[in-house]
Amino acid sequence: MTDIFQNRILLISIFSCFLAQFLKIFTGKEKRIDLKRIIISGGMPSSHSSFVTSLAMFVGFDKGFASTEFAITAVFALIVMYDASGVRRAVGKQAELLNQIVDDFFHGKFDQHEKLKELVGHTPKEVLFGALLGIIIGIVMS
Q1: In contact, 68 and 60? CB cutoff 8 Å
Q2: Which residues, 6+ apart, have CB-to-CB distance to 43 below 8 Å?
Q3: C-alpha distances in angstroms, 135 versus 38, 96, 99?
Q4: Quick one: average pLDDT of 22-50?
Q5: TM spans, by residue (predicted)?
Q6: Residue 105, Cβ neighbours under 10 Å: how many?
Q7: Distance separating alpha carbons of residues 49 and 121, to the nearest angstrom
Q8: Residue 76 three-state SS
Q9: What band does 59 get if pLDDT is binned at 50, 70 and 90?
């Protein structure tokens, strides 16, 4: 089990994810620092994209960009980024619409309902910046 803490590729990929998550506290729509954003999904930059692209870059540098291992991590990264900007983004838009319907229905008189989480997915721009962050970290740290 201690070997996992010596896996440089894994540790730096996790760092890339946490760095992207940390940067979110400065990138909210409100244009102010919001510490709560460090634990949310969605937002700028995409920590999922940063995580998987950093992983793919490290595997590419370590095993070669023509290797099967790189191909696997690159495909994995593309699937994660597609999901982040497609499926999860759609779920967030549906949550936003449902929350508006509930607000309109109750005209603010009913405060007992729980709002759905609206910031679930990413815009293509957020995915791109997360991916670029992961690539940069992969290059700098390799």
Answers
A1: no
A2: 24, 27, 28, 37, 119, 122, 126
A3: 21, 32, 36
A4: 81
A5: 6-26, 38-59, 65-84
A6: 10
A7: 11
A8: helix
A9: very high
- CA atoms of 79 and 62, how far apart (whole Å): 22
pTM: predicted TM-score of the whole model, two decimal places: 0.69
Q: How many alpha carbons fall within 13 Å on the CB side of residue 69?
A: 11
| 51 burial type by CB count under 10 A (0-12 exposed, 13-18 middle, 19+ buried) | buried
Closest listed residue to residue 74, CA positions, set 55, 91, 95 = 55
Q: What is the mean pLDDT of the chain?
A: 83
Asked whether residue 125 carries a pLDDT value surpassing 60, the answer given is: yes
- Encode pLDDT of 69-103 as tens digits: 999 999 999 999 888 777 777 777 787 888 877 77
- Describe the chain by its helix, strand, coil percentages, rounded to 5: 70, 0, 30
